[in-house]
């Protein structure tokens, strides 16, 4: 039975040898109950893993909560550099434990293998913790000391070791333990002490000098000059404190350009996008080009979120500060305090957090200032001396509200935007900041956290306090939203780099100026890029509009000429002679034709020929009187262009000497066809363009049926030359316009494509450098087709989108008006022609028939007019709706 | 830590540091859930579930991560939360549109696969705490019986080993009953 469980385990672990595994599988295949049991065991193991993983994640979450709690106390930290160290510090108590076992029995030997014990060893309980040396472990003692024990902190620790801790943190404990507070006979100011030892079995372990244990000892206030003493047991059972060590780590500035001041992942992304990530001039210019760009996505979000204050506090700020500091400040403090350095009745509150004592002082003072002054607390008394009066008490403000007010006032009243603007980095990653705390590995690490929190106020804190120690600045950062992440840095107690006051002032000014310059440069580049694009596009659109008008004109001219040819032919076939040229007169320009009427049957011919010409359908008319017929055939030509869809543009033209202009053949569902008039000789010209390469094909004579076009690559000038030569003195010059048009279209598409690519690059980089960017964007992968448009949409701000919408409306309006006018002109012309026809009866017998013909012409004209207008309406709607979508997306239409 | 480092740590069973590194994405998920009718507890739960899925997948030899860890985690969380909103009959609104459609199938198959193990987990929650710890230390922490015995206060290695069989047997019984009830 047990054997089977082991076997299944071995099988699932993959530790069976190949032979056993194969025979086990064979058994499984034939034995359903075994298979069941294997599956059950597999699922159970997965369930156990779930429990293990939940425990692991819950522990981390708990640790972070623990950190939040500790941060409220304010904590002094030291590195325990030697074994069996007792230390003392200013302390208070706390109550949490972390699974310690407590014993009052002393082990056989002390940490040095000796048997001498101090009274403290005997009187204080020992807390025992089982530690896995392969893992980073954080424990909290009953007194509230937090020890961080890195993996491998103890040498020769084996599989598991035991940590022994004794602590005396309150004056009461210290007295009970009989601990002295003397160092070689001199009295020490004391708060608390602890003893630390580690054992594997009986043997005491040594700390790996490269991986010291960190201890966080809770305190109300960080006092300068605190030192770590080692305890030496004396013969009378006391402890003498020796070897004081300062608890601060000195900073060593390095070459600032050897440090990585980019957000995590930026260089990898840049390399992935094909840039040279090793060339700092390239990477700097890319990163700094995003200066100010966070505004594009933050601004619309800010607008939305300002309407939803509660939500905003949850999303934008950590839970510690979920109240609106600005409102509270204005309601409670603004009458006596400013958020600048300027004194009013009370002090100017800019930078307040870096001045006031730590711990609960701020709450106590705001709740009841006179009590704090009376207690003799020095800082409150200093304020009292300065102001000659005590501040009004605000007993009802909660601690969180006080935090929010101070956080707001501390940075000069301006609410911090989110995200670290690359301009700020451009300002500090410079030679000017060499030999300051900015040029240290320690700052480099903090910068990564600042990036991930996206709080520029934190960055400013470090830049504006160059004269302070890093851990002092860390403690200020801890007061800000998300600041709990600085707890770990603070715990290291990193020092500072000396800098003179005047130099610091210079650097602060430089920081402001350089930032501004970097932002302006980036904006100029970005606006230059988009403005140029917009300018080019508007030129292109204007040209396209002109061309549309020309196309309508050319169509009209061709129609008139073809109608003239057709009607002449029709009369000839019907045997009606003409004395003058019959010309279609647009706009009813008076009598300009005349013809002899010999029969009564011709009267409908006008209408039939007109309709046949407009609709390009075969005219087949029999004169009811003479029985003679007029037939003008229109027959279809199919133009087959292999792989037409693979070209960027394909233009098909029919050229005939008889008409003033060439005819454009439009694409319908990927096919090109046109009906040819049998009276005319046509040549076929096809031009195409693919990725900037030109192709052409010319067929001198085409007849109804189908024609296969072979496109041949050419260059622009030979294309122009050959077309000009071919149609010299005929219609050739018009092709120049067409080639120009195709060129412009190509350039437009290239611009669009480039803009799209740029937008995609922007998206990918901004996702890396701005942690909040992703939260407000679709996290769809880049290859989905609508992402690019979405990116472009999000790339444009709300105001910009509104401007574009207004422009689109104007443009679409102009185009629509032009289309309407053309349609109406055509209709007026057709009506005039109809009127003329109606009035042209020569005897009463003809009158009714003439009227019918005229009505038919009017109806055709009405239909065509309605159709054109409907098309124009649809075009307008399309043009506007695309930009409207942008506005909706960026301005957050409800 | 880069994604690659995190993955290496997970493969090596170094969960704590990996979870710490992955904690930074939690704020995004919390924002996402709380913006969409969820509580902080909900956010923590689905984030934990997403981490579990990630850890399990990373350990599978033929699993290949096709996106960044943050995309994967946030995607799984979004998808889970969408399901939860539906289950609670809360209007999903625009939330659904934000789902990463390219990965929907992968995500839902992962979530479904994981839900099977929840029954096993439930069964294990019914066995005693000591039993559960023993199984966790053996199967998850991969400690040997000698260490386990000292950890949970058993006389020796042999007792721990026997105890393991018993605990697993018990869990199996509960599991089979639960499954029967489900069916």
Would you give an account of this structure?
- The complex is a heterodimer of chains A (894) and B (183).
- Chain A has 26 helices and 25 strands.
- Chain A has 894 residues and is α+β, with helices and mostly antiparallel strands.
- In chain A, the strands form 7 sheets. In chain A, strands 2, 3, 4, 7, 10 and 11 form a 6-stranded antiparallel sheet that branches.
- The longest helix of chain A is centred in the middle third of the chain and has 74 residues, at 501-574.
- Chain B has 183 residues and is mainly α.
- Classes of the chains: A alpha+beta (894), B mainly alpha (183).
Sum up the overall morphology of chain A in one term. Answer: elongated
Q: Class by helix and strand content of chain A?
A: alpha+beta
Question: Portion of residues in helices of chain B?
Answer: over 70%
Q: What is the helix content of chain A?
A: 40-55%
Average per-residue pLDDT of chain A, rounded, comes to: 75
Q: What is the count of DSSP helices of chain B, taking H or I runs of 4+ residues? A: 9
Low-confidence stretches of chain A are 68-98, 220-224, 304-322, 579-603, 778-795
Cα-atom radius of gyration of chain A: 44 Å
How large a portion of the residues of chain B is in β-strands, by DSSP E?
under 5%
Largest interface: A-B, 47 and 63 residues
Oligomer: heterodimer
Q: Give the SSE string of chain B.
A: HHHHHHHHH
- Describe the global form of chain B: globular
Derived structural class of chain B: mainly alpha
Key descriptive features of the protein:
heterodimer; A: 894 residues; alpha+beta; six-stranded antiparallel beta sheet; five-stranded antiparallel beta sheet; 49% helix; B: 183 residues; mainly alpha
Record the SSE blueprint.
The complex is a heterodimer of chains A (894) and B (183).
Chain A: H1 2-13, H2 18-30, H3 32-73, E1 75-80, E2 87-89, E3 101-103, H4 119-123, E4 126-131, E5 137-140, E6 146-149, E7 161-168, H5 171-177, E8 182-183, E9 186-187, E10 192-200, E11 203-204, E12 213-218, E13 227-233, E14 239-246, H6 266-272, H7 280-288, H8 294-306, H9 309-316, H10 325-332, H11 361-367, H12 369-374, H13 378-387, H14 399-410, H15 422-428, H16 441-453, H17 456-463, H18 470-478, H19 487-492, H20 501-574, H21 605-615, E15 619-622, E16 629-632, E17 634-640, E18 649-655, E19 663-665, E20 667-668, E21 671-677, E22 682-690, E23 693-702, E24 705-708, E25 712-714, H22 716-726, H23 732-769, H24 785-795, H25 798-839, H26 844-891
Parallel strand pairs in A: 17-24
Antiparallel strand pairs in A: 1-12, 2-10, 3-4, 4-7, 5-6, 6-12, 7-10, 8-9, 10-11, 13-14, 15-16, 17-21, 18-19, 18-22, 20-21, 22-23, 23-25
Helix pairs in contact in A: 2-3, 10-14, 15-20, 20-21, 20-23, 21-26, 22-23, 23-24, 25-26
Chain B: H1 3-11, H2 15-22, H3 26-35, H4 40-59, H5 69-87, H6 104-126, H7 129-140, H8 145-152, H9 157-182
Helix pairs in contact in B: 1-2, 3-4, 3-5, 4-5, 5-6, 6-9, 7-9, 8-9
């Amino acid at each position: 039975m047990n054997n089977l469980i082991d076997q299944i385990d071995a099988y699932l672990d993959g530790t069976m040898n190949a032979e056993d595994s194969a025979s086990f599988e064979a058994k499984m295949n034939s034995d359903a109950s075994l298979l069941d049991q294997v599956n059950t065991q597999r699922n159970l193991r997965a369930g156990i893993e779930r429990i293990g993983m939940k425990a692991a994640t819950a522990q981390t979450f708990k640790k972070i909560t623990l950190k939040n709690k500790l941060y409220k106390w304010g904590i002094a930290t030291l590195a325990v550099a030697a074994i069996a160290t007792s230390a003392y510090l200013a302390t208070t108590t706390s109550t949490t434990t972390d699974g310690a076992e407590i014993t009052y029995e002393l082990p056989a030997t002390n940490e040095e293998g000796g048997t001498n014990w101090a009274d403290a060893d005997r009187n204080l309980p020992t807390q025992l913790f089982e530690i896995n040396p392969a893992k980073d472990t954080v424990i909290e003692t009953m007194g509230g000391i937090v020890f961080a024990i890195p993996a491998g902190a103890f040498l020769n620790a084996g599989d598991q070791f035991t940590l022994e801790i004794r602590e005396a943190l309150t004056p009461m404990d210290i007295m009970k333990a009989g601990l002295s507070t003397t160092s070689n006979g001199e009295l020490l100011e004391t708060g608390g002490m602890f003893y630390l030892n580690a054992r594997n079995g009986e043997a005491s372990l040594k700390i790996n000098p490269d991986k010291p244990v960190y201890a966080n000892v809770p305190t109300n206030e960080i006092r300068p000059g605190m030192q770590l003493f080692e305890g030496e047991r004396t013969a009378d059972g006391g402890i003498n404190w020796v070897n004081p060590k300062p608890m601060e780590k000195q900073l060593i500035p390095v070459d600032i350009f050897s440090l990585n001041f980019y957000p995590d992942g930026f260089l990898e992304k840049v390399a992935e996008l094909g840039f040279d990530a090793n060339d700092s001039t390239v990477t700097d210019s890319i990163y700094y080009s995003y200066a100010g760009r966070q505004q594009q996505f933050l601004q619309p979000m800010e607008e939305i979120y300002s309407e939803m204050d509660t939500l905003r506090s949850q999303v934008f700020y950590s839970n510690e500060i979920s109240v609106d500091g600005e409102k509270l400040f204005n309601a409670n403090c603004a009458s006596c305090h400013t958020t600048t350095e300027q004194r009013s009745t009370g002090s100017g509150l800019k930078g307040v957090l870096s001045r006031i004592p730590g711990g609960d002082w701020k709450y106590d003072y705001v709740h009841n200032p006179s009590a704090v002054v009376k207690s003799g607390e020095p800082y409150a008394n200093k304020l009292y001396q300065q102001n000659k009066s005590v501040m009004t008490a605000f007993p009802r403000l909660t601690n969180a509200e006080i935090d929010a007010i101070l956080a707001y006032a501390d940075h000069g009243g301006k609410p911090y935007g989110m995200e670290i603007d690359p301009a700020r980095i451009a300002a500090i990653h410079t030679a000017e900041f060499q030999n300051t705390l900015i040029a240290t590995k320690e700052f480099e690490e903090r910068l990564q956290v600042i990036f991930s929190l996206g709080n520029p106020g934190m960055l400013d804190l470090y830049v504006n306090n160059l004269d302070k120690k890093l851990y002092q600045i860390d403690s200020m950062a801890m007061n800000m939203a998300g600041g709990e992440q600085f707890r770990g840095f603070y715990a290291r107690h990193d020092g500072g780099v000396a800098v003179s006051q005047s130099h610091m002032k210079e650097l602060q000014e430089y920081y402001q100026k350089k930032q501004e310059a970097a932002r302006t440069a980036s904006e100029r580049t970005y606006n230059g890029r988009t403005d140029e694009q917009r300018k080019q596009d508007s030129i292109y659109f204007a040209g396209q509009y002109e061309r549309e008008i020309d196309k309508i004109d050319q169509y009209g001219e061709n129609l008139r000429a073809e109608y003239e040819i057709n009607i002449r032919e029709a009369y000839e076939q019907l045997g009606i002679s003409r004395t003058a040229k019959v010309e279609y007169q647009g706009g009813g320009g008076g009598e300009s034709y005349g013809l002899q009427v010999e029969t009564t049957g011709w009267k409908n011919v006008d209408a039939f020929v007109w309709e046949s010409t407009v609709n390009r359908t075969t005219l087949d008319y029999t004169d009811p009187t003479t029985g003679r017929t007029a037939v003008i055939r229109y027959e279809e030509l199919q133009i087959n262009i292999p792989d037409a869809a693979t070209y960027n543009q394909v233009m098909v033209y029919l050229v005939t000497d008889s008409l003033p202009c060439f005819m454009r053949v439009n694409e319908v569902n990927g096919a090109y066809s046109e009906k040819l008039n049998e009276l005319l000789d046509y040549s076929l010209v096809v031009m195409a363009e693919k990725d900037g390469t030109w192709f052409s094909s010319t067929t001198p004579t085409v007849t109804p049926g189908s024609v296969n076009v072979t496109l041949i690559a050419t260059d622009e000038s030979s294309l122009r030359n050959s077309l000009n030569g071919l149609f010299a003195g005929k219609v050739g010059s018009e092709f120049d316009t067409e080639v120009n048009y195709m060129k412009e279209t190509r350039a437009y598409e290239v611009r669009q494509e480039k803009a799209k690519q740029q937008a995609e690059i922007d998206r990918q980089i901004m996702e890396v450098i701005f942690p909040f960017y992703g939260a407000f964007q679709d996290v769809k992968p880049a290859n989905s087709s609508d992402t690019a448009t979405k990116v472009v949409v999000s790339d444009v701000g709300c105001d910009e989108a509104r401007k574009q919408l207004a422009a689109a409306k104007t443009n679409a309006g102009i185009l629509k008006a032009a289309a309407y006018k053309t349609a109406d002109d055509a209709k007026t012309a057709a009506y005039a022609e109809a009127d003329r026809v109606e009035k042209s009866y020569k005897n009463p017998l003809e009158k009714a028939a003439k009227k019918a013909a005229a009505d038919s012409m009017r109806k055709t004209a009405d239909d065509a007019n309605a159709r054109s207008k409907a098309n124009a309406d649809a075009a307008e709607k399309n043009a506007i709706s695309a930009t409207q979508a942008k506005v909706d997306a960026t301005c957050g239409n409800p | 830590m880069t994604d690659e480092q995190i993955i290496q740590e997970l493969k090596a069973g170094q969960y704590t540091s990996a979870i710490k590194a992955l904690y930074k994405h939690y704020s995004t998920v919390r924002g996402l859930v709380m913006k969409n009718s969820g509580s902080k507890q909900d956010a923590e739960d689905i984030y934990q579930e997403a981490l579990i899925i990630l850890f399990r997948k990373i350990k599978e030899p033929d699993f290949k991560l096709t996106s960044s860890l943050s995309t994967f985690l946030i995607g799984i969380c979004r998808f889970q939360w969408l399901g939860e909103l539906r289950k609670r009959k809360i209007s999903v609104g625009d939330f659904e549109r934000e789902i990463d459609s390219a990965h929907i199938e992968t995500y839902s198959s992962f979530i479904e696969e994981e839900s099977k193990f929840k029954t096993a987990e439930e069964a294990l929650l019914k066995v005693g705490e000591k039993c559960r710890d023993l199984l966790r230390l053996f199967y998850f922490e991969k400690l040997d019986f000698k260490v386990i015995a000292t950890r949970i206060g058993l006389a020796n290695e042999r007792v721990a080993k026997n105890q393991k069989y018993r605990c697993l047997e018990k869990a199996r019984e509960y599991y089979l009953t639960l499954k029967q009830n489900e069916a």
